[in-house]
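2024-03-11 09:14:02 INFO queue: dequeued item Formamidopyrimidine-DNA glycosylase, len=269
2024-03-11 09:14:02 INFO validating residues
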Amino acid sequence: MPELPEMENYRRLLNQRIADHVITDVQINREKSINVKPELFINSVLHQKVTTVDRRAKHLLFHLQNGQVLLLHLMLGGWMFYGTEEEKPKRTIQIRLSFGYQHLYFIGLRLGYLHLYNENAVQQELSDLGPEPLESSFTLEAFLKLMDHKRGKIKAKLLDQGFIAGIGNCYSDEICYHSGILPTREIQEIRDEEKSHLFDSMKNVLTDALNHGGYLENPFFIGDTKTGSYNQFCKVYDREKQPCFRCRTPIEKTTIASRKSFFCPVCQK
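2024-03-11 09:14:37 INFO prediction written
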């Protein structure tokens, strides 16, 4: 599932390509991927200029000139491609937004969605989300305050979008590895010094992943060599039985909050 670095990478690429461009055609192949009747969706979106694309947690917000907002959540397996009809992947397309001869394809939206809201409604929809971990206003002091009196396993809490927004299965494991903390550790057992390391690791891992385009496999456009390049830098995620880069101990896998979780039994305490 795309997480904060993947969606922020998409946001930057989309603003380069479709901001201030007019949607010239709308194609909906799967009605379950939208939240209103196709006719209303098309009438609200067609011939509208995309003023900007924002991100909140794992969501993207396509702001239209008429004040409407398209709220995207890719969920598990969702991704996007931008290009011509000849360049598009040989995959099932759930939704297509056209910008002249270039098109934005939404692929794999079996669980994901592209919903239509007004500005007030979309803010209400996102009101339960926690703080953005890469915002400068999210300081160590704010993080420690959030951690006060929390209970449960640290990995499960990092996955909680109401606690901190945008971290998912991959980066929760990578953050725990970077900080040297086992994902199974109970929050109330983690010392303040370790919490400080965890905070620094969160900033470092997410920034590094963003700089490398996240871990998604599929390029956003023909010739895109950045998107997905963080795959080669993952230290523990999806590396079961492979040697730890620090101590060469085989990476182990367990299940936390119904999610597969990877860790080094030696480097993480």
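2024-03-11 09:14:37 INFO annotate: The chain has seven helices and eleven strands.
2024-03-11 09:14:38 INFO item closed
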